[in-house]
Amino acid sequence: MRILLYLGKGGVGKTTTAAATALRCAQMGYRTLVVSTDIAHSLADSLDRPLKNEPTEIADNLFAQEINVLDEVRKNWGALQGYMGKILRKQGMSKPVAEEMAIIPGMEEIFSLIQIYRNAATREFDRVIVDAAPTGESMRLLAMPESFQWYVERFFGWGETAMRLTGGLLRRLMPEQDALAGLPKLVDDVKELQEVLSDPQTTSYRVVVNPEKMVIKEGARAVTYLSLYGCPVDAVVVNRILPGVRAHGSDGGAADDEGGRRAGEAAVFAPSSDPYLRQLQEQQARYLAEIERDFYPLPILYSGWRSEEVVGFGPLRSLADELYGQRDPGEVMFVGQAQEIEEQGNDFVLKLPLPHIELDKIRLTKRGDELFISIGNFKREFLLPAVLAQRDASGAVFAGGILSIRFPCSSQ
Ligand SMILES: Nc1ncnc2c1ncn2[C@@H]1O[C@H](COP(=O)(O)OP(=O)(O)O)[C@@H](O)[C@H]1O
Ligand SMILES: [Mg+2]
């Protein structure tokens, strides 16, 4: 089974890309499920088919489903949430706050993913395409098989202490035995899910961006955290590229009138006569080049800005053709980590592969969680995970295509 998760900032084209990818997979003969966990259901709009909470067959080999996240929470967490909520209320919290607090951040998505995985396994899907992938919070829960268990034990350990303190009345109020009965099963499910979602042979995360500043930043942040938690990111999708703009990779590296462009370079090859559009083209070309540098060495898939919304099978299929060409969307597009953090004594060393560049003086500038790297003419922005943003960088070495940046322990 292959699980492909498409993530990125709202509006970039995640749902569209997921739907197009699913259509292509089904067309290739794979039994495919495309699922959305977005509360604002748009998969049905994109596919132009009504969908339900259960997988519905909408074409040969193609099933689609819109999961009701709130239902999943209620089903899996309802009893436990009630139990915790009562304890918290007993401590003086108001009811709405207590019930809100009783949800572990990120749980909603995890319940949905467990449901997706269960469905995929029992109904024997070859391909599962997920629209609205896990956020940072749920990634944290999934990062270690033990973290969820640790969380839950602390949570309920605390609950038991509170029970002892508040005594008999509360005990009578709560059927705590029933509430806690499902807990070990849940812990096992999360463990299994974690294994599946971090196995690069099974799962690939793909970050969808547009050639726009804030969107690129959010995408870069996603790659940073996914890498930190060991989630296999294997490609970047750049959607909504204006006509007349071309990146190095978008023509498959074929020679063109510009000639000699390398990764990290993009150009406007057909400038618009409209000065407004022309300016947008130039801006996109700059950001396209930035995307190639900032996401290196991840492969990049490109799709253009259509004059009409991409809705229904026809337009989605044509978008898939543009994105994947002859490729199978289910192939593992990149093996390895796009970035790594190594522990060396008390220091952390960030290891970033960089394209072939002339060795020159390396300059590092840090601003908040942004790290600006410049080596000669080469410039790259990097979004640091919080663990590195808290420290200062002490120096960098570029060798064997890898830039190693040292972050010494800040406490001495
Ligand atoms: N390449 C494109 N050209 C034109 N419209 C697009 C393109 N990609 C997406 N859209 C449209 O943009 C809107 C947002 O896309 P969607 O896939 O729902 O984004 P997300 O799921 O990331 O929020 C939709 O109306 C969709 O049809
Ligand atoms: Mg969407």
Automatic annotation (TrEMBL):
GO terms for molecular function: ATP binding; ATP hydrolysis activity. PANTHER family: ARSENICAL PUMP-DRIVING ATPASE ARSENITE-TRANSLOCATING ATPASE, ATPASE GET3. Belongs to the arsA ATPase family. It comes from the Bacteria. InterPro entries: ArsA/GET3_ATPase-like, ArsA_HSP20-like, ATPase_ArsA/GET3, HSP20-like_chaperone, P-loop_NTPase. Residues 1-244 form the ArsA/GET3 Anion-transporting ATPase-like domain. Residues 346-407 form the ArsA HSP20-like domain. This is AAA family ATPase.
